[in-house]
Amino acid sequence: MTRRSLPGMLAMTAASATLLAACGQAGQADGGSGGGGDADGGTTEISMWTHSAGNPAELEVYEQIIADFNGSQDDYEVVMESFPQGAYNDAVVAGAAAGDLPCLLDMDGPIVPNWAWAGYIQPLGIDEGIIDSLLPTAVGRYQDEVYSAGYWDAALSIFARESVLTENGIRIPTTDEPWTLEEFDAALVTLQGAGYETPLDIGAEDAGEWWPYAYSPMLQSAGGDLIDRDTFLTADGALNGPEAVEFFEWFQSAFERGLASDAGTIGNEEFNNDEVALSYTGVWNALGSLEAAGDDLLILPPPDFGNGPKIGGASWQWGISAECADADGARAYLEFSFQDEYIAAFADKQVVIPATKGAEELSEMFGEGDPLQPFVELSQLYALERPPTPAYAVISSVFERAGKDIMNGADVQSTLDQAVQEIDANIESNDGYGF
Questions:
Q1: Nearest one of 101, 94, 20 to 320, comparing CA atoms
Q2: Contact 221, 304 (CB under 8 A)
Q3: pLDDT at residue 8 above 90?
Q4: Which residues pair with 312 in a beta bridge?
């Protein structure tokens, strides 16, 4: 997988977020049938949309779950339609405007609050025992109400070769004692001096949701954030306060000193080819790096920028449309689907972190002693959901633009102040998004 295909990529721009809100209101006004219906004189059809077209491994598991559920009872028949990820959000927006959403639809974790606020989806209402068994970042909430749940999550880490760190006298960090910012910076300088022209692949050549997913956790580790999470009404003080400025000054300097670059390939090829010493990347690239580095591969925690390490959380999840006429059937399917064997199959086929302890133990790659088990620990210790506010689609776009401007040499304080103004103006124009 490339960075762009990782679970948890929000395929939405600020413009489409505005369109989503407008269409959401129209969808509520128009009503809708919710895609249910009597399929064969007693069996109710439950329609289902997924973004997974083009991902045969994921679709294979869904097809198995649907076949097993449909065969397990006579009341409901789930019928799936898959869309390419790039077209999926547009299909949902159009479906909401027409009052023609399916009963079941998947959604990227960060967009859940927006779709709940816009009236696309209803409270999930499935067994609380299932919700309690999942990783916290596999559950989507808005205003403290559960609207979605997912089978997996993804996690970022620092990939390194043990031999390279040892040869250069660099301490190998642990979850108990991660690198401090000072150690991390010094390690990069040492590795540059050892012959790695650009020692860190930070993924800055990528675009879109990668930027807030990858770099806002660094900001949060430094003590800043994308928004004030106490009120969700302003980014002032969080995105442009002294902690945020200090972090972004270091971020800018890493590029100025050549410790990181905005050039390269999307993926992890530079690390696998030993062209960079460290790679800030995720679980979806782990198998390729294991093949390249073998037992020399280290899956390390991210550095501590002052307030403990952080990584992004929340990937694709499932919800029930607000207009679904057969929500009981949709809930029956979802409760059936959250079996450990299915969650483990998703994990192993897609290389993603299973959302339950039972699935972790069934997995071939994520159980105790398995090669990718460190990602489970990183997710449990450090994962932080992107702000659960309908404003997130705008926040994401603004953050990416500001981060790229800073990377390219813009004044840090004024750039962050402008970003705060844009975010706050959007929140105010939408009456606080319910907060």
A1: 101
A2: yes
A3: no
A4: 384
**Helix (H/G/I), strand (E/B), else coil: 241:** coil
CB 160 within 8 A of CB 278: yes
Instruction: Name the one residue in this structure whose structure tokens are 């606080």.
Output: 432
59: how many CB neighbours lie within 10 A of its CB? 16
By the 10 Å C-beta count (0-12 exposed, 13-18 middle, 19+ buried), 53 is classed as: middle
* Tokens encoding 280: 């800030």
User: Is 155 within 8 Å of 374 (Cβ atoms)?
Assistant: no
How far apart (Å, rounded) are the C-alpha atoms in residues 180 and 305? 6
Strands 316-321 and 104-108: antiparallel
The string of pLDDT tens digits covering residues 162-190 is: 999 999 999 999 999 999 999 999 999 99
**Is residue 95 pLDDT above 70, yes or no?**
yes
Q: Name which of 37-41, 62-66, 260-264, 424-428 the model is least confident about.
A: 37-41
Arithmetic mean of pLDDT, 65-87: 96
User: How many whole angstroms separate alpha carbon 199 and alpha carbon 188?
Assistant: 6
370-400 pLDDT per residue, tens: 999 999 999 999 999 999 999 999 999 999 9
Residue partners of 408: CB distance under 8 A and separation at least 6: 262
Q: What is the mean pLDDT of residues 41-53?
A: 93
For residues 259 and 188, the answer to whether their CB atoms sit within 8 Å is yes
CATH architecture of 156-313+391-434: 3-Layer(aba) Sandwich (3.40)
Report the C-alpha gap between 18 and 20 in whole angstroms: 5
Query: How is the chain split into domains, by residue range?
Result: 3-153+315-377, 156-313+391-434
pLDDT(203) > 60:
yes
Positive or negative, the CA dihedral 413, 416, 422, 427 is: negative
Number of H helices, E strands in the chain: 17, 15
Question: Is 322 in contact with 117 (CB distance < 8 Å)?
Answer: no
Same fold, 3-153+315-377 and 156-313+391-434: yes
Q: pTM of this prediction?
A: 0.89
The CATH number of 3-153+315-377 is 3.40.190.10
Tell me, rounded to whole angstroms, the distance of Cα 19 from its chain centroid.
22
Q: What confidence category does residue 11 fall into, taking pLDDT thresholds of 50, 70 and 90?
A: very low
CB 146 within 8 A of CB 318: no
